[in-house]
Amino acid sequence: MQKTSGFKQLFYQHYESLCITAYRYVQDRQSAEDVVQDVFIKLWSQRSKLSDVDNLEAYMRRSTVNASLNYLKKHSRMQYTDDDESLDRVSSGPPADSSDAEHKTAMVRNAIQSLPERCRLIFTMSRYDGLSYQEIADNLDLSIKTVENQVSKALKVLRESLKSLKT
Questions:
Q1: Ranges for all domains in the chain classified under CATH 1.10.1740.10
Q2: 75: burial class by Cβ within 10 Å (0-12, 13-18, 19+)?
Q3: Which of 12, 46, 122, 153 lies at a 20 to 30 A Cα distance from 63?
């Protein structure tokens, strides 16, 4: 019973912040909650292995980011075919004044989604999750130099693909 109450405490302590992290990727509250619930189910089923984890909070955050990216990969085709109005708005050129910000946001989101998976993960951890290069390196078992190179690569690709927004 002690483990169950400890798990409940862990759930209540981290659920909302993990939902916020997942939401940054999946852009849908219900989907973000589903992703986080799946992360907690996986944590519970692998609880015997968690004693090897040094930083449980970082492990849960990383698990949530990975689960969110997997969700996006699985649902990416549906995202573009299910929302015809949004797709038409993005593909029909610059929209009217009222939806200009929405158009630019969609272009930025699409440009970020087009980054290679590891590059996108590192970029979003840096820019959206607010993690330092050292924290990212520690979470992903990479060198700081690799993190710096990936962020630099992401910024270069994003600048190139978003040139048209500089008007």
A1: 1-82
A2: middle
A3: 153
Instruction: Say how far apart CA 137 and CA 150 lie, in whole Å.
Output: 11
DSSP string across 56-86: HHHHHHHHHHHHHHHHHHHHHHHHHHH-HHH
125-134 pLDDT, tens digit per residue, is 888 777 788 8
Classify 1-82 by CATH class.
mainly alpha
**Long-range CB contacts (within 8 A, 24+) of 99-104:** 104/165
Class in CATH terms, 83-167: mainly alpha
Numbered ranges of CATH 1.10.10.10 in the chain: 83-167
Question: HSE-up of 101 (CA within 13 Å, CB side)?
Answer: 1
pLDDT digits (tens, 9 = 90+) for 39-68: 998 988 888 888 888 888 888 998 998 888
The rounded distance, in Å, linking the Cα atoms of 50 and 151 is 30
Question: Cβ(81)–Cβ(34) under 8 Å?
Answer: no
